[in-house]
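=== RUN LOG ===
request id: a7f3
mode: sequence -> structure
chains: 1
length: 399
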Amino acid sequence: MVLGLLLGRAGVDVLVLEKHADFLRDFRGDTIHPSTLELMAELGLADRVLALRHSKVSRLAMEMEGRRLVFGDLGRLRSPFPYVVFVPQWDFLDLLASEARTCPSFRLLMSAEATGVVMEHGAVCGLRYRASDGDHEIQTDLVVAADGRWSRVRESAGLVPVEASPPMDVLWFRLSRRPEEPEEVAVHMVPGRLMVMINRFSYWQVGYVILKGSDQQVRAAGLDAFRASVAALAPEVADRVGELRDWDQIKLLTVRANRLRRWCRPGLLCIGDAAHAMSPVAGVGINLAIQDAVVAANVLAGPLRRGRVRTWRLWQVQARRELPVRIAQAFQELVQRQVAAPALRSGVVSPPRALILFDRIPALRGIPARLVGRGPWRVRLRRSLRAGARPGSATGAAG
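=== RESULT ===
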């Protein structure tokens, strides 16, 4: 959606496909980091984003056996937005879509599911999709696969990611939330168990972390045992675990992390989770995906307006984004290996020395804050694509 908005503002004919009839999905990432808010400011949309119902977090912390460790302070960032904002992603997408629709060359097609690419002489030249009125095919100068970690577009083009092996999966469910309860994200960890609670205003979105592949074992132990485990992890919601009346309320999120060796082929570019699926650690996935979109727009808007996108331009997007992605994935793997895996496998909760150091020396908290809040380095939007810039003439097409 961000890429469609940027290309639409640049005067490129662009069609965005969304397979659902609306954006109201339950388990999408809701974190908007300083990097994304800075981009929204460049687009003149920051005030509208912050006008959406949201909560803010300026410190990164977790509880380990009753001990609260603060390991990051976003207030140390040199940014007008020194915090992470939690906004329901459907509201954020609605805002982006409404803004993009003001661009004459932008079109959003809902209830339209991509089913595969159209190939000709070894190059992608179009996209097939299924809508309520049947199957369709569209010819384009460029197809951008932004359809997530199970990307059908990527698969149909023959691009296969290299899989990592995160040690965990997540069980997602809701518990009611009271107005007087803290707004910030709560991370609870005790020997053998880890749980994250995300404020969704009227309810907590709870992520109960389990060992990879142990979902059936957890369910076999029974719902009463699961409710007791949740209550022990977070005593403040113990009086509400009875709201979990059956297993249908508890959904499995299979954690997947991978990376394509090549993000593109002639006529096709993969971005976001389609190019590099991230684990949930630190909630950086959505913000890395948006940075991909910014770099893609910076590199491709001009060639798309001229109706000619050479493959080396697509490689240029990957070249600019691959190292930040590798660094972020390495950070996630470190957290999973040093914190999550030992706690889940052996029941040993021992804070890593680095975490203790960040907690004890506030001056060091800016290091993880920068990595989480902005990424390895800042991504800026080209001046010609910012708010107030005049779009070029629309002679290209992107799908």
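=== NOTES ===
The longest helix spans residues 311-346.
Residues 168-253 form one domain.
=== END ===
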